Amino acid sequence: MNIQKYQAFITVVEQGSLTKAAEELGCTQSAVSHSISGLEEELGFALLKRSRAGIRLTGEGERMISPVRDLLGSAERLKQTASSIRGLESGTVRIGAFTSVAVHWLPAVLKEFQQDYPRVDFRLLNGDYHDVEQWLQDGSIDIGFVNVPCALDCECIPLMEDRLLAILPRGSRFENYPKFPLVECETEPFISLLQSSDHDARRALEAAGVKPNVRFYTKDDYAIIAMVEQGLGMSIMPELLLKGRRDNIQVLPLIPEAKRVIGIAIAAGEKAGPATRRFANYVVRYVTELKEP
User: DSSP class of residue 194?
Assistant: First the structure.
């Protein structure tokens, strides 16, 4: 069985085009097209429809996505296990993370892990909570940073509690407040993440029985900060996301207090290979050391 054909198929689906898939795989567009054609001939049906509008899956192609991802995952675990038996750690670990973790945790963990296991490669996907949960569910990643509790069929390890904070424009009427009353979100212009992403603020507001006066929606955390700087409204952000920033905003604790719990979710059962589990251990150790006084 030629695994490369299946990898080419999944990469085309993920990238949305033959050109981007070729760049991702480090080969020519012609080679990718040849691999797909060979796989379609081997299977006996078409997987993709090609037109001027781009590439889309056939009905048969849709049905093949999940088993092909399972096949590639099994091949990767086989590779990692064989490498581990030989006394080496190699393979590819696929990670999904939201912005605050991708910026403040992952670079340091990756650096330490690469020093110890230089033969392990990484594929990093950055998105919101919904994206990471979807990638875990469909097998696109091996490890995902999630908001705990997590309803997915994964092994989930809580890592750290992270306070939620109010962010406001400089010079607002809350300039001298020691804390921000959540009830004020009902009157203040509120800038929100999209509903699929805004788990943190929504949970805090719902727990307090507060309906925010939402004036703007966006999917980008840093876009919200920039909008607050311009006086367009206020918002609620995790403390980790704001760490080390010097934006022209006011940051206040909330009344009542609110927090999120960041966790790491690992593919359940035997789906995670040795290198994947080893990396998860490094993450847990890194965050544990962060919390130590």
Answer: -
Residue with tokens 């203040």: 188
Instruction: Tell whether omega for the bond before 274 is within 30 degrees of 0, i.e. cis.
Output: no
In degrees, to the nearest 5, what angle opens at C-alpha 278 toward C-alphas 11 and 238?
A: 75
CA distances from 144 to 16, 21, 106, 152, 169 (A): 22, 23, 12, 11, 33
What is the phi/psi pair of residue 188, to 5°?
-75, 140
What residues contact 258, with CB distance under 8 A and at least 6 apart?
163, 164, 182, 200, 203, 204, 207, 208, 236
Q: What is the pLDDT of residue 257?
A: 95
The predicted-structure confidence for 246-256, as pLDDT tens digits, reads as follows: 889 999 999 99
Place of tokens 């919101």: 128
Which 3 state secondary structure label does DSSP give 179?
Answer: coil
Beta-strand relationship, 259-267 and 143-147: antiparallel
Strand partners, 254: 180
Helices (H) and strands (E) counted in the chain, each on its own, are 11, 12
pLDDT at 88 > cutoff 60? no
Q: How many CB atoms lie within 10 A of CB 110?
A: 18
